[in-house]
């Protein structure tokens, strides 16, 4: 009888740690015996075998006439799932995955078809995340990155507040036109902890804001007036 071939459910002989892989015989037989490391596996006497363990697997088959045949040894390898990528943003407004390949981008948790490059250019404000894939083993979703396409808040016709650039390195440019207000205040909060990191009072339009003391990360910047009637916030990223 012909020598059996071992067919794997993944097609590569590789599978993810904590997942399973199914091995199947290429030939039909009367009796099957699966082996690992050269030793028979107890109760593994079906045409297919599902296992969670890596190892050197082989298969012994016997046909109706008592003829026995042994497959070649197949190395079955378990692959540790990759760690979730980290998203950063470059000065051109692209989101960048820390993984060099196997990326898949998501918008608000929904897969973006065709978005598989290391960099991704969002077209609208939302929470973006990314996974990476190695031999079919997909990582967990990265921590979401909230992207703002523009950092200009249009309040009404001819009235606006602007903070730029986003992301920034050390300095932000602050500009605004709001009827009845010549000065505004700014408060800076760490988005992860909610703690206040900076506070600046009585800022005038066009004034540069130095935030070199801040660590790299994402911040909420509140723009408020002394009377409390103006109260807006921006998500800004410091590189």
Short description:
It contains no helices and 25 strands. The strands form 6 sheets. Strands 2, 4, 5, 7, 8 and 9 form a 6-stranded mixed beta sheet that branches.
Give your account of this protein's structure.
The structure is a single chain. 0% of the residues lie in helices and 51% in strands. With 239 residues, it is mostly beta strands. It has three domains: 6-79, Immunoglobulin-like (Sandwich); 87-147, no CATH class; 152-238, Immunoglobulin-like, CATH 2.60.40.3080. The strands form six sheets. Strands 2, 4, 5, 7, 8 and 9 form a six-stranded mixed sheet that branches. The termini are far apart.
List the helices and strands and how they pair.
Elements: E1 6-8, E2 14-16, E3 21-25, E4 31-36, E5 39-40, E6 48-51, E7 55-62, E8 68-70, E9 74-79, E10 87-89, E11 95-97, E12 103-107, E13 110-111, E14 119-120, E15 126-134, E16 137-138, E17 145-147, E18 152-156, E19 159-164, E20 171-177, E21 184-190, E22 196-203, E23 208-210, E24 217-224, E25 231-238
Parallel strand pairs: 2-9
Antiparallel strand pairs: 1-3, 3-6, 4-5, 4-7, 7-8, 7-9, 10-11, 11-14, 12-13, 12-15, 15-16, 15-17, 18-19, 19-20, 20-23, 21-22, 21-24, 24-25
């Amino acid at each position: 009888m012909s020598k059996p071939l071992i067919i794997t459910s993944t097609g590569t002989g590789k599978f993810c740690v904590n997942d399973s892989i199914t091995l199947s015989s290429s030939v039909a037989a009367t009796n099957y015996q699966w082996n690992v490391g050269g030793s028979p596996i107890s109760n593994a006497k079906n045409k297919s075998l599902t296992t969670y363990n890596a190892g050197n697997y082989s298969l012994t088959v016997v046909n109706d006439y008592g003829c026995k045949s042994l497959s070649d040894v197949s190395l079955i390898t378990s692959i540790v799932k990759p760690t979730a990528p980290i998203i950063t943003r470059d000065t051109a407004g692209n989101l960048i995955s820390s993984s060099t390949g196997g990326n898949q981008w998501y918008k608000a948790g929904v897969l973006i078809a065709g978005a598989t490059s290391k960099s991704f250019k969002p077209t609208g404000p939302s929470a973006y995340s990314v996974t990476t894939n190695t031999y079919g083993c997909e990582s967990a979703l990265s921590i979401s990155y909230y992207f703002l396409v523009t950092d200009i808040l249009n309040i009404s016709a001819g009235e606006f507040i602007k903070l730029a650039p986003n992301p920034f390195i050390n300095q932000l440019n602050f500009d605004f036109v709001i009827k009845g207000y010549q000065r505004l205040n700014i408060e800076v909060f760490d988005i992860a902890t909610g703690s206040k990191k900076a506070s600046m009072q009585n800022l005038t339009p066009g004034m540069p804001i130095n935030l070199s003391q801040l660590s790299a990360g994402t911040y909420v910047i509140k723009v408020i007036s002394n009377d409390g009637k103006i109260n807006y916030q921006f998500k800004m990223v410091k590189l």
